Amino acid sequence: MASTADIRNGLCIKHNHDIYKIIEFLHVKPGKGPAFVRTKLKSLTNGKVLDNTFSAGHKIDVVRVETHTFQYLYAEGNDFHFMNTETYEQITLNKDVLDAPELLKEGTNVMVQINTETDMPLAVDMPASIVLEVTYAEPGVKGNTATNATKPAKVETGASVNVPLFINEGDKIKIDTATGNYIERVKE
């Protein structure tokens, strides 16, 4: 058993008969009354996010997890297939467990958190950014904007990303996997 002092981002806990991952937390010490911890929890079974407040010193049940590197192989409907890079064991995960499945490119390495008690995969941590090729983008017209304008573009995984007007088909762009936003054009 741990207490609220042990709360940190990425910690997996049992709460209300489900397993949650802590996305955000904030220790609050008001001038009046006891301290508390405000958290944002993501369910690892259904992907729902909920806000919860723990009073200071509240006991929390921590789930022991191991992290392994897996390589994304292919998608089949809502099922995504991954292979452990050390043991070559393959697992299948549902689309709901993934944070940004539309940005996954075949061959991408991800970190999978596995519950050590049940050997069940809990969460998939994508790399911070991913480089993808633009497969379709309408041509941008110079001189018709007053500020930095964007246009929609399709990338090789099928996802749609808003990019600056100077991005064309065939360009490689870096995308933030947490937000799905364009970061920069990659020159090779």
Automatic annotation (TrEMBL):
- Cytoplasm as a keyword? yes
Annotated Elongation factor P C-terminal domain residues = 130-185
CDD domains cross-referenced by the UniProt entry: S1_EF-P_repeat_1 (cd04470), S1_EF-P_repeat_2 (cd05794)
Give this protein's Gene Ontology molecular function annotations. translation elongation factor activity
Positions of the Translation elongation factor P/YeiP central domain = 67-122
**Location of the protein in the cell:** Cytoplasm
Name the InterPro entries for this protein.
Answer: Elong-fact-P_C (IPR015365), NA-bd_OB-fold (IPR012340), Rib_uL2_dom2 (IPR014722), Transl_elong_fac_P/YeiP (IPR020599), Transl_elong_KOW-like (IPR013185), Transl_elong_P/YeiP_cen (IPR001059), Transl_elong_P/YeiP_CS (IPR013852), Transl_elongation_fac_P (IPR011768)
Main location class: cytoplasm
| Biological function | Involved in peptide bond synthesis. Stimulates efficient translation and peptide-bond synthesis on native or reconstituted 70S ribosomes in vitro. Probably functions indirectly by altering the affinity of the ribosome for aminoacyl-tRNA, thus increasing their reactivity as acceptors for peptidyl transferase.
Q: Which family does it belong to?
A: Belongs to the elongation factor P family.
Name of this chain's protein? Elongation factor P
